């Protein structure tokens, strides 16, 4: 039986037309700087929003002002390490990620650059579909 997180990840993948039978992953990093998001960053000084989607789960990571929240969804949403920004109650579904992202942008007066997102995936042709999805968030 699939978990709630696995079901949402599979639906997300299929909605993008990216179905595959091999193991896959999608990792997205958003930054507030006016250049492509870097692979390296500091939890203490940077403002970042990450969206990670895997066959068995999905989750988000947000850091700002030396505080961080990392929420993962498998059987249900749970805090992975810490939730300094109180995001656990806001993330019930993968389809709600855009609202959570916009909410932290408003709350902290940030502008995450979707056009400069760092996208890491083993799905070779996935980047255009992922960038299109990001533009809707």
Mean pLDDT: 93
Ranges with pLDDT <50 over ≥5 residues?
none
**Overall tally of structural domains:** 1
Q: What is the overall shape?
A: globular
Distance between the termini: 30 Å
How many beta-strand runs? 6
Count of alpha and pi helical runs: 3
Strand content: 25-35%
SSE order, as H and E? HEEEEEHEH
The percent of residues in helical segments reads 10-25%
> How would you write the strand order of the largest sheet?
5-4-3-2-1-6
Radius of gyration: 14 Å
Subunit organisation of the chains: single chain
Description:
A six-stranded antiparallel sheet has the order 5-4-3-2-1-6, with helices on one face. The chain contains three helices and six strands, in the order H-E-E-E-E-E-H-E-H. The model has no long low-confidence stretch (mean pLDDT 93). The chain has helices spanning 4-15, 97-108, 127-135, and strands at residues 26-31, 48-54, 57-64, 67-73, 77-83, 118-121. It has 137 residues and is α+β, with helices and mostly antiparallel strands. Strand 4 (67-73) and strand 5 (77-83) form a beta hairpin. It has one domain (4-16, 24-34, 44-135).
Write a short abstract of this structure.
The chain is of the alpha+beta class. It contains 3 helices and 6 strands; from the N terminus they run αβββββαβα.
List the helices and strands and how they pair.
Blueprint (H helix, E strand, L loop, with lengths): L3 H12 L10 E6 L16 E7 L2 E8 L2 E7 L3 E7 L13 H12 L9 E4 L5 H9 L2
Antiparallel strand pairs: 1-2, 1-6, 2-3, 3-4, 4-5
List keywords for this structure.
6-stranded antiparallel beta sheet; single chain
